[in-house]
Design a protein that fits this description.
Helix content is about 45%, strand content about 15%. It has about 200 residues and is α/β, with parallel strands linked by helices. The protein has a 5-stranded parallel beta sheet with strand order 2-1-3-4-5. Helix 2 links the parallel strand 1 and strand 2. The N and C termini lie far apart (about 55 Å). The relative contact order is 0.14.
């Protein structure tokens, strides 16, 4: 009888420890999800909708806020014809000081610590409208993780080019090319790895 009571007592203690460990693990997961939801932003520029889809899936997969960088004058199909030396995108990308105007909507980065920043790669760098966005807001002491879509180009000198548009305390990290429309699960896994 005494042995049975000892066994029951041991099982109760072990069971309590397992429940405590599970609750503690769930608390940590909930804290991480809360931090991601409150302090992480997915900002993106998309001219054709490709980057927009990735950004929406990323924001949804990590419960982050989302913000679209909108040029004051939207890009047309002819604006994006990179084979035309007189197209808007070609002219902007040939002038690294070009800063296309963006829609001013009183957006603030104050409540975010980390920003996932997405865009298509144009001429091996981010479109200059992304520089406009960075220069229009305060990213001091924030971490910016890049993601991009591309027809074949890599990040090239994107990080170096964008660093010129933010304060020295801003971290900009080359993230990932998202050319194959990754699933929400893949995006969540990647985001957790880089956060």
């Amino acid at each position: 009888m005494k042995n049975i009571l000892i066994i029951i007592l041991v099982l109760i203690i072990i069971g309590s420890g397992v429940v405590f460990a599970l609750n503690n693990k769930n608390d940590k997961l909930q804290i991480k999800e809360t931090n991601m939801a409150n302090k992480v932003l997915v900002a993106y520029f998309s001219a054709t909708g490709t980057t927009k889809q990735v950004a929406q899936n990323l924001a949804e997969s990590i419960n982050a806020d989302i913000y679209e960088i909108k040029p004051k004058v939207p890009y047309t199909k002819s604006d994006l014809n990179w084979m035309d030396k007189n197209s808007r995108s070609t002219i902007e990308m040939n002038d690294h000081n070009s800063r296309p105007e963006i829609v001013d909507d009183n957006f603030s980065t104050d409540s975010y610590d980390t920003i996932f920043l997405g865009f298509p790669i144009w001429w091996y760098i981010a479109p200059t409208v992304v520089n406009t966005f960075l220069e229009a807001h305060d990213f001091t002491n924030k971490k910016i993780i890049l993601f991009a879509t591309s027809g074949g180009s890599g990040f090239g000198k994107t990080v170096d080019n964008l660093k010129k548009s933010v304060s020295g305390s801003t971290q900009i990290k080359e993230g990932k090319l998202m050319n194959n429309n990754p699933s929400k699960e893949e995006l969540k896994k990647w985001a957790e790895e880089v956060l």
